[in-house]
Design brief:
about 350 residues; alpha/beta; TIM Barrel; 8-stranded parallel beta barrel; 12 helices; globular; disordered N terminus
């Protein structure tokens, strides 16, 4: 059990989840430039990983072709691990993902992570367009996972379908989750687990308990390894950070209204934008975000680590101004002694 007074942020790996945000008035081209610039900065600041997420049909997120964006980032950096947070496996034939990530690992040896989710990452209509055959889905995720793992195994005369490149490569597979299902599966299969606290905070502690209690040692891990993703918006003052965070709040507000859009500039006051009921819903989803000055963020990060006993943290920062976003990650790096 970690004791609050002995937690040392300097000993916890910290990573980045980037959604390649498309800002109001911006473009995907600009988003990809900013994503690479962020990756180059956080690599310099000694962040551990840089993950990108698969979403489709979202006007504010540019990373739909996730494997391509991963290659863009990996090619423009040299040491930081780059991966998916995650690939939504039911959207794809496992063979295609094995080939894509086999290619990425061959291009960037020892630097590629394959994080997998089972949600579609989009609405029902777009899901049908993606999958064509909608009989495949989250219900057969374990079978899809087993098939994918088989393609990374060494060559065998019994194998009739082979992933080349991919075969025989050691690419870390993570399971991602926002509830208990993937937590239990990751534990039973002895895989590392990443939890989406940044939009499902109420399920974080139960999912982590489930993962650890069901963990069985495997060829991959001899003990549980849990990474938790959370929203962190850091600035020079608490007031500035709270204003910057309104862009994230507006984004979630539009999602619950089923009106997704680009990331908007921050506002001074949210009260003229949401109803009291909408405010409560947004607070339920992202109210546990860590927002504030260096001192505030440091205190809250230590408290969060005490509560979760996470082995690694992953930071998401939906900030409209790219320079402010860089500064937010820089402040976290300073807090953690990485810079």
């Amino acid at each position: 059990m970690i004791v609050l007074t002995t937690i040392n942020l300097h000993q916890i790996p910290i990573s980045v989840l980037d959604l390649s945000p498309i800002i109001l008035g911006g473009s995907a081209q600009e988003s990809f430039r900013n994503t690479l610039d962020l990756a180059q900065h956080v690599e310099k600041w000694k962040y551990n990983r840089f993950w990108l997420a698969e979403h489709h049909g979202m006007p504010g997120i540019a990373s739909s072709a996730t494997s391509i964006v991963i290659n863009h980032v990996a090619a423009g950096t040299s040491t930081i691990r780059v991966g998916s947070g995650g690939i939504m496996l039911p959207n794809h034939a496992p063979l295609v993902i094995a080939e894509q990530f086999g290619t990425l690992e061959s291009l960037h040896p020892g630097r590629i992570d394959l994080g997998l989710g089972r949600a579609p990452g989009t609405d029902h209509v777009t899901t049908r367009a993606l999958r064509r055959d909608t009989r495949s889905g989250a219900h057969d995720f374990p079978e899809q996972l087993a098939e994918l793992q088989s393609y990374f195994e060494s060559a065998s005369a019994m194998k009739k379908v082979r992933a080349i490149p991919g075969e025989g490569l050691h690419i870390p597979i993570w399971l991602l989750g926002s509830s208990g299902y993937s937590a239990q599966l990751a534990g039973e299969w002895g895989l590392p687990f990443s939890f989406a606290h940044h939009f499902s905070p109420e399920h974080t502690l139960p999912a982590l308990r489930l993962y650890r209690s069901h963990f069985k040692p495997s060829d991959v891990l001899d003990k549980p390894y849990a990474m938790v993703c959370l929203n962190v918006v850091a600035a020079e003052t608490d007031e500035e950070a709270k204003k910057l965070a309104t862009s994230m709040q507006i984004q979630f507000l539009k999602l619950i209204r089923n009106q997704p859009g680009p990331l908007e500039p921050p506002v001074d006051n949210m009260d003229h934008l949401w109803t009291s009921m909408e405010k409560n819903v947004v607070e339920e989803r992202i109210g546990s975000s860590i927002i504030g000055s260096k001192k505030t963020v440091q205190e809250k990060l230590i408290r969060f680590l005490h509560e979760t006993e996470a082995d690694e943290l992953m930071i998401n920062a939906q900030i409209y101004d790219h320079q402010k976003r860089l500064r937010s990650y820089e402040i976290v790096a300073e807090i953690a002694g990485m810079k």
